[in-house]
Design goal:
The protein has 260 residues and is an alpha/beta fold. It has helices at residues 15-22, 37-46, 104-117, 150-153, 160-168, 185-200, 202-208, 218-225, 232-249, and strands at 4-9, 30-35, 51-55, 66-75, 82-86, 95-98, 122-125, 138-143, 156-159, 172-179, 226-229, 257-258. The protein folds into two domains: 4-76 and 171-258, D-Maltodextrin-Binding Protein, domain 2 (3-Layer(aba) Sandwich); 82-168, D-Maltodextrin-Binding Protein, domain 2. It is 36% helix and 25% strand. The strands form two sheets. Strands 1, 2, 3, 4, 10, 11 and 12 form a seven-stranded mixed sheet that branches. The protein has a five-stranded mixed sheet with strand order 7-6-8-5-9. The radius of gyration is 18 Å and the shape is globular. The relative contact order is 0.22. The structure holds ligand ISJ. The ligand C=C(O[C@@H]1C=C(C(=O)O)C=C[C@H]1O)C(=O)O binds at residues 9, 11, 13, 37, 55, 73, 79, 81-82, 102-105, 143-144, 174-175. Ligand ISJ is lined by residues 9, 11, 13, 37, 55, 73, 79, 81-82, 102-105, 143-144, 174-175. It catalyses: chorismate = 3-[(1-carboxyvinyl)-oxy]benzoate + H2O. This is Chorismate dehydratase. It is an enzyme of class 4 (lyase). Pathway: Quinol/quinone metabolism; menaquinone biosynthesis.
């Protein structure tokens, strides 16, 4: 049988999910690749992946998107690794770089600037090395492992998970397991069981993974900040976020089907 082509985000917060998948009975059926989120999105869109952990912001760009798992990369309030950094208060920032690794958080940042902070700095597309340009009146959105330690480097740090929660009272979903093709029920069951098993073994991962910084607790990050369950409140948040994107793009794209 052909192996399924799976693409997942290359950041630390995906490791519990990958640990579960690779140690599961279906581990051998998976042809796994890791990419930055914007590339995961591109690979699913191009048909280079059968199933991918993708930024939810690209769901409206897909033909017949299916969310095939009860697990995701989410947060209930503070997430720690999706933040706007600046040396001036955000209201004084004239320009803001939008991380090129990201698809969801660049949209979330724009939503929050408009609806929550009521600010309109000039938005700049980022390129490799842009973090060095943050300073003065220039702010920057940064996601993933590159954020670790940046809170000590810059005077201000605005956590997008926390701001979204203050704005809506809801958790948030950054990335979800999405497919544009159908999988049979036994595979989906095995896939979800594998993810559940990974999340339940987080305690082990702190011994297996190198800590990215001396004062960074992987266990705290995986259990207190990242929230893996795609529960009802996160579904509501996802619906709200995708409705905002539809409105912004002036397109009434159907909501993704849940098949899990
Ligand atoms: C919480 C995070 O969410 C990430 C943010 C994404 C985005 O902005 O497009 C995509 C995937 C997630 O892994 C993170 O990686 O720090």
């Amino acid at each position: 049988m052909d192996r399924y082509r799976i693409t997942a985000v290359s950041y630390l917060n995906t490791k519990p999910l990958l640990y579960g998948l690779l140690n599961s009975p279906i581990g051998g059926q998976l042809n796994l690749e890791l990419n930055i989120p914007s590339d995961c999105a591109q690979k699913l869109k191009n048909g280079q992946a059968d199933l991918a952990l993708v930024p939810v912001a690209i769901i409206p760009e897909l033909q017949q998107p299916r969310i095939i798992s009860r697990y995701c990369i989410g947060a209930v309030g503070e997430v720690r690794t999706v933040c706007i950094y600046s040396d001036c208060p955000l209201e004084e920032a004239e320009t803001l770089y939008l991380d090129h690794h990201s698809r969801t958080s660049v949209e979330l940042a724009q939503l929050l600037l408009k609806e929550y902070w009521h600010l309109s700095p000039a938005l700049l597309p980022a390129q490799e090395g842009y973090i060095r340009k943050i300073g003065g009146r220039t702010a920057g959105l940064v996601i993933g492992d590159r954020t670790i330690g940046l809170d000590k480097k810059f005077k201000h740090c605005y956590d997008l998970g926390e701001a979204w929660q203050q704005h809506t009272g809801l958790p948030f979903v950054f990335a979800a397991w999405v497919s544009t093709r159908e999988f049979d029920a036994p595979f989906l069951q095995a896939f979800n069981d594998a993810l559940a098993s990974g999340v339940s073994q987080i305690q082990k991962l702190k011994y297996l993974l190198p800590s990215p910084a001396p004062d960074f607790s992987l266990e705290e990050y995986f259990t207190r900040y990242i929230s893996y369950q795609l529960d009802e409140a996160k579904e509501e948040a996802l619906h709200r976020f995708l409705s905002y994107l539809n409105e912004k793009q002036g397109a009434a794209k159907p909501m993704p089907v849940f098949q899990r």
